[in-house]
Write a structure and sequence with these properties.
By secondary structure, the chain is of the alpha+beta class. The protein has three domains: 95 residues, Ribosomal Protein S8, Chain: A, domain 1 (2-Layer Sandwich), CATH 3.30.1370.120; 227 residues, no CATH class; 104 residues, TonB (TolA/TonB C-terminal domain, 2-Layer Sandwich), CATH 3.30.2420. The protein contains 15 helices and 21 strands. Strands 2, 14, 15, 17, 18, 20 and 21 form a seven-stranded mixed β-sheet that branches. β20 and β21 form a beta hairpin. The chain is rod-shaped.
Amino acid sequence: MEQLITFGLTNSLAAALLAIAAALFARFTQRPVLWYALWLVVLLRLLAPPVFAIDLPIPDFARASASSDAATVAVSGGAVAVSESGAALDPLAIIGLIWAAGALVVIGFAIAQSFQLRQILSSSDPASGDINNRVRDLSRQLGVRRSPTTVQVLDRVPPMLWAFLGSVRLILPTELLTRLDARETDTLLAHELVHLRRRDHWVRHLELAALALFWWNPIAWWATRRVRRAQELCCDERVAELLPNHRRAYADTLVETAQFLSGRRLPLGSPARAMADLSQMKGRIQMIMATSQAGRMSLATRLLAAAMLVAALAVTPVLTATSDEPELTGRPVDLVLEEADLDDVLATFSKLSAIEILVESGISGKVTAKFEQVPWDAALFTILRDQGLTWERTGDQLIVRRPDSEGLVPVSPAVGEPTARLAGKLDGEDVFRYVPDGRISEPVIIGKVMPKYPPEARKAGIKGIVVGDLMIDEIGMVRDVVIKESVSDELSTAAIEAFEQWTFEPAIMDGKPVAVRYIVTVAFRLE
């Protein structure tokens, strides 16, 4: 479903740009054939998949995050509680259902029109011999290889072509024919046969596909109306060329047809809607009555126009997120993590996601967080980020690493050779870097003060993690704090004030308490 939405939005963006270009271009040219080509490309652009894509970076606002009442600190102990949200409604699924429902309405409306027209045709009569003779003669002049079957109906319907399963019928209202003289009838027949010669009736299928799939997009409706108006103008131009001595009769025919259809509520999407549009009548008559006709375009102009149209159809702007994080596609879950071991948390996510999570040695920690209706991968990446870890996703495998920065423990210590890395001096005594699973025991917190959320930061919506590097002396007192990572100075200050009041059971090496540097992560979260 997400791919379909992306396809719809991407093609809508490309079609909108083309529609604006077509509308501007129409102001500088009087060639209906070019108008028609441009607006037809807009419809095709809505439906065609991209051939060549141009990335347009956009900010990524879809990042999910955990929520909590205040800052929480990973310490020790804990458990993991997991409940999948299978009963929750997926927003993408709701969008898909609405989209499909609208498409079915458009298609159903078209089917209803077809049945209505078939009922009208069921009571139709073959056209008179004179009409059939004129249709054959005009078809020959226009190069139509197979004349349509011509019928007359008593209903007040617009003259139109009806194509079904390969057969084409020319439908003429008997009442309208009685209002027209011979010259006017010729222009009416010629107009509909030009539609047939241009194969405009097949474009109706393209219009239906565009309106069914993009019924929610104003560009689709706008382009459809413009295509039909351009078709009428193209037919007007061709009829004026074919019957130059019938121009006045042709203009009278358009006026008479419009009066005949006045008061008749034509259904939206009717093939004859443009012909009955009085707002366009003045411009059409002026073009028909013009004494000079535009010459044919040169070969170079036609090739250039064709190249531009092909390029517009083939090249598509694609919206891409600027974030370097993996795309979030996981199903929503509810997670409650209370002082949970990081290993247990990652094992839980491995079961949820059906991917293999590989953790480099030396990584441990505790997690306290709450997630509601969050994609599992968004929750996982938030936890890893809060722990100060990096990750790399490859297929069905996720590798979790510690950032390669000064002060962090080296990964994969040699088996059988536990290390104790010097990290400086305190009052002349060695200070060691605590290494998990090394020969130095981990300092254990026995007293802590929770960081206070700075009011300015809360008001500004600032949230994130603060990574502190604590120097803990031989009696368990915090003697120095270095902030390794933070999103703001306000959060750093609040974390330092809390860290300086913490007390620990000191780290032990070879049975003696020693001073160590120890990494602690604080997560500031807003509701």
